[in-house]
Amino acid sequence: MAESAKGQGNAFFGILFAATVILILAGLLIQLFIVVVNVFSWMKRGSLKPGDQIITSLAITKVLYHTASLLEVFSRPYFGKLIVQYLILIKFTVQTLVISTIWLSTLLSIFFSFKISNFHNVFFLRLKAIISERVVYLIIASVVLTLGMSMTCLLLTFNIFSRNSTTGFLLNYDKSNVCDIFWNIFPLYMYFFASIFLIISLSFHIWRMKHCGNAISSTDTYHRIIKFTAISFLVCAVQITLNLTKQYGFRFFGVFWMIFIWNMFPILHSMSLIYINTRLRDAFFKCVYCGSSCLFKRNG
């Protein structure tokens, strides 16, 4: 009985390990597809639109995140034999890239909110122009901010393990939790308000178009953006919830299930990005068509 249960456990671990690796590789292909399409567009036109710059930066961050997750997956079976510095480097890299993904997704939502909304207030128009003209600086600022957050959490974690007394351990552990909550909840609030603002603005715009007698088909783009906004906010909320409850998640689900779930939501976000972006969507369908045509020709 014990050997049978052990064999079943090993088989389940093997299936979960393979599923996690396949999911991460699929995520890598999707993110690389977004990067390659935008790079070709940049080479063809000589420049990228501000929104495409954020999308490309977000896709590159996700490529690095999936790569770090893949390294973590293959390192997990040998964690006991690996040096502490390597483990800390992997955890630091994964945590940094997770937070960077959240901040860049928040920036993308804010950018869409200002770009699509049709308010004519002077302050609003000025803020809209500033954001549109300084997207590159905002991307760099979000990366620097992410590194600062991760370094703070890393230093607090080092303090946790360097303290011998119980009082010192609990004090630093509480500080680490407060730091973790602040770095995650703050972008969530920004994301929430930007998403609500964007959905209300688009809904009001659709209502005006319908009452002005415009064709219903012309509102399809706005409906897609509303769906994307809702999905991306849910993805961000789930990611932040996982970040804040990761210790309980590791105990309840296990490490590989958590890695699987963590990598699934960035893929959903990227698929929804492909869905709303016309250039990405057309390129994706072309790739699917070419792949299916080559497959049918080989079989024929």
Automatic annotation (TrEMBL):
InterPro entries, sorted: TAS2R
UniProt key word Amino-acid biosynthesis: no
Compartments it resides in: Membrane
Pfam families in UniProt: TAS2R
Entry's transmembrane regions: 12-42, 86-114, 135-161, 181-204, 225-242, 254-276
Membrane-related topology note: Multi-pass membrane protein
UniProtKB keywords: G-protein coupled receptor, Membrane, Receptor, Sensory transduction, Taste, Transducer, Transmembrane, Transmembrane helix
Protein name per its UniProtKB record: Taste receptor type 2
